[in-house]
Every structure is written in C-alpha cells, then in structure tokens.
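Handout, section 3.2

Students often ask what a structure token actually looks like in practice. Rather than define it abstractly, here is a full record for DUF3139 domain-containing protein. The first block is the sequence as you would receive it.
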Amino acid sequence: MPKFHKVYLIITIFIIVILLSPFIYLEVNKNIYENRVTNYLLEERGYNAEEIASVEGVFGFKMPKFYTTVTFEDEPYVKYTYFAHNEVLQFNYEIIDEEHEGITKEDLKNYDPSG
C-alpha cells in the first residue's frame, strides 16, 4: 500500500472516530444511568424485575444532562424521573395519560417522598 493511501486511511479513520464519539458518549452515559436506577430499584427498593415496565436513560439539554425515566407495570400512566449522579433519587413524576390527570402524590403507588 503506497504511503499516500496509508495517510489517507489514517485520516479517514480519525475523522470517523471524532464524528462518532459524541454519539457513543451519549449512548454509554444513558446506559450507565439506566443501570444505576435499575440496580437501585431492584436491590435497594426491593422491586421485582416484573414490576418495572421500562427504564430509559435520557439526555436533556438542561441541568442535569442525564437522567432516567421509569414506568412501572402497576402505574403505566405515570412516568417517574430519577437522577443517578452521586446517589439515585426519585426527582419527579409526570402523568402521561389524560384519563388519570387528577391523581395526587398520595394516590401514587411508586412515589418515593424521601426523594
């Protein structure tokens, strides 16, 4: 392989790595936060895996940049937000089904008042 082709190949690979690195960074961090929250729910909060409908790592443009949303099987109409930076905390919840809009914190089965 001529020297020019080697240089061209190295430059091309370098550019591809630079272009892909932000996407890899986002996906890896979302996965890390998903795993932290999942482990917290299973090991510290005592949930069974069957009780958790979904755990999704999210990249947001506000602070904090990474957080996790969780939906439970017994409350598919509520999306809980967890932060998992130093410790895992339930931060907020959102009613995602208009039919259940009037629900209060006291009615929520998976709301954690301790945060």
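Discussion prompt for tutorial groups: The two ends are 61 Å apart (CA to CA). How would you have guessed this from the sequence alone?
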